[in-house]
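user: can you give me the structure for this one chain? tokens are fine.
assistant: on it. calling the predictor now.
[tool input]
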Amino acid sequence: MRRSSSVTVAAPMLKMRRVVLICCGFVLLPCSLRAACLQASHLSAPDCSYTARRLIPGCATVAEAAFAALHLPSNKRDHSLAISSFACKFGSERPATKKSSSFSNRTPSKGLSTQNKKVLLPAKQRGGLSRKEWDLAVKIAGPKTSPGQLAKMMDMAKNGKFNELEVIWEREGASKNEVKRRTKITKEIFAGSNQSGPQNVVAATQSELRCVHFGACPGCIVEANLHDTPTINEAKMFLGALTKQAGREFEVNMGQIHRWRTLAKLAVSPTNNEMGFEIGLYKSGTHDVLAIPRCRVHHPSINEAVSILQEEMLAVGIQAYDEKSSEGHLRYVQMMVERHSNKVQMTMVWNAENFRDASPQAQLLVKRLKLYDIFHSIWINYRTGTGNVIFNRDEKKWQLLIGPKYVAERIEAGLNLSFPIAPSMFRQGNLEQFTAIIQKVETFIEPGSKVCELYAGAGMVGLSAALQNCEWLRCSDENPANLDAFLATKQSLPIDLKRKAYYTTSSAEEAIEDGQVDGADVLIVDPPRKGLELLAHWIQSKSPTELKKVIYISCGFKALKEDLKVMLSGNKWKLTHAEGHVLFPGSDHIECLVVLEKL
């Protein structure tokens, strides 16, 4: 993605490049090399600049090497040497059959020939769909359907929601015959009636990660059979036995396995490469950063935003923070994607006390970044000192530099509310699958229930799943940043619902001491990975007599296992439902929804 005020190469510059190519023996180069260089001569300045900075060390294709070579010695303006060196190094290389995906999200240059080729929209304009998925979606719904709607239909088709697709098409005014035609094609592709062609492609996409970073990246431990990890298997055995006693089965649910991560926290570290830094994840057991520019679980906007940030850091001269010397500028970066717009709320963790100390570097960087329309907003968090904590949680250390304060995320459950989210608030990395958990919670809230939610965040679960049917809802969380977001969501509600919702900024223990649970018959808990700890003992032995049901959303299975052993002892509570959700496909992690009822 280019900056919104894109800069095109002036005619004299194009002329100079072509003259340079001829002067350096262009006619003597192999045919494949000549084609690559000709393509490079038509590239815009930002595209060439990006390639030179990012791809010089390990060019994946001849074309990429040509792009890079044209700008390699730009500081000396010695293009002849660049092309000559390039010819010596890559002259015998065969042309690659597929262009590197490093350029897939950038708008194609006008001068690049597209004759006899399909014009591919950038990933952002494809609603995040891959090339194959886009072609399939267009085949089903037609090219006039919006990219966002095509992406939504693609997900519905993958999940077998053919009846819902028919309803959408009928509402759009499609004829009965057209609806039948689309349904037939969709079922042939996704329901397995056609075992050849596109069906195999989609099946492979759904079952395997196929990520180029797998093996080196610590984020994923399995590439196929994503339900088969040690923690997931342990959950199946432990919770499977408990649900069997309740006359039920323990099921594990998983949504899409690619592009699901819409929130990423990445480290910035100095390296010995040509850029002088890397942005990515720490390698296992180290503080060495591994760049993951083609991560397949990242939303495409995250990968694109990181690429742009790297380019502009180089242009401005931003230095990565060095843990050994405690010097440098940028320590971490958080990328949060607003799903309906595909734009990124970026937070830079800066090694400074305030904006004055961070300038002029931060000021110059933001001035350049705000020209890119991919950024929804840019925040900065000031953090100095040592330690592994990413953010400085002092509310005075957060500063909004450009753009709106919140991203807006609509949760399609219950009241279908839109929640404002700031970078200082907790938010799930996989909102699609977390929405499935909220939808399930809603089924356990009976009309007239009195509900208390601890560890509520901004009330996303309680407001979405419980408020519509309950008599009242009390939410609490210890993060003070959540209160404004809760109140903003509450303000959008009808008056009769506003009166039922309350919020307190307090820890779970403080909320219990203040009587927040008193009178409630349903308790919703969504604790951090360490679990309930002492609160599990309180539920088992000291919870109010009115409390009849506990809905436990667990993000740490080991802690859940210990908490259940405590709460189920003494024959006061029984487990009536449990199910698993794989929110992070490829990792050894499972989120569990457990329902306990008092005996």
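assistant: here you go. The first helix runs from residue 11 to 23. Residues 1-120, 192-206 have pLDDT under 50 and may be disordered.
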